[in-house]
Design a protein that fits this description.
Blueprint (H helix, E strand, L loop, with lengths): L1 E4 L20 H10 L2 E4 L13 H11 L7 H16 L10 H11 L12 E6 L5 E4 L2 E4 L10 E6 L3 E6 L8 E6 L37
Length: 218
């Protein structure tokens, strides 16, 4: 139900005085909400409150690797597989419970993971221009003219391979306005020299590749 974090910048936005509420990073809050657990920030200068995660590395090194040589990865894996049941049958020095039995109870207490993993992405707010284009990363992305208004803020969620634009207005539930591959692709982002964007997003506006010849007005 609760995960204890050190005061890392990915969880805590800034350091505060003792007794004040810790300002959490919005991405960390979103991650905790997706997997349904609470964030407990470790008190400053309290090293004894950290879990002994790194201690497991020393345990494996001292009990499996030290004083031995292996000719292959498979031989090393076999040595670890032989040692693991022996370790799980021992009593833990902190809570004095059998490690294997405690691990089984902890596993049963875990909740199932969500069907979809948490989306790790850069998140930015950008205004919509009068031409229904949104600038990001040197490209212009078009959004539907009937679903946004000029100067409205949209949220950009950018992964390594995809860029998604979502409405930031509360009553639209953050609906997806555009999802396209990152960088230039067919029907996706337009360079700044291509100002019209998607013609389907601007009904009634001719696409620049289909314009007729210019005429001289009387």
């Amino acid at each position: 139900m609760t995960v204890v974090y050190d005061r890392t910048k990915t969880v805590v936005r800034r350091h505060i005085a003792p007794g004040e509420a810790v300002p959490l990073h919005p991405e960390a809050v979103g991650f905790a909400g997706h997997y349904d657990f609470d964030i407990d920030v470790l008190a400053a200068y309290r090293p004894t409150g950290k879990g002994r995660v790194k201690r497991r590395v020393l345990t494996v090194r001292d009990h499996v690797l030290t004083g031995r040589s292996f000719s292959s990865v498979e031989e090393m894996d076999a040595a670890f597989t032989t040692w693991a049941p022996q370790r799980r049958a021992q009593a833990h020095r902190t809570h004095q419970q059998i490690i294997g039995e405690r691990a089984a109870r902890d596993h049963v207490a875990l909740k199932p993971l969500p069907e979809t993993p948490y989306l790790v992405a850069e998140r930015h707010l950008r205004p919509v221009g009068k031409d229904c284009l949104v600038a990001f990363g040197g490209n212009l992305y078009s959004v539907p003219a009937r679903r946004v208004r000029p100067r409205q803020l949209v949220e950009i969620r950018a992964t390594k391979s995809q860029v998604m634009l979502h409405s930031a207005i509360a009553h639209t539930d953050g609906e997806t306005l555009l999802a396209t591959t990152r960088g230039r692709s067919a029907g996706g982002p337009r360079r700044r020299r291509d100002p019209l964007g998607r013609p389907a997003h601007r009904p009634g506006t001719p696409h620049h590749h289909r314009r007729g010849p210019a005429t001289t007005s009387p």
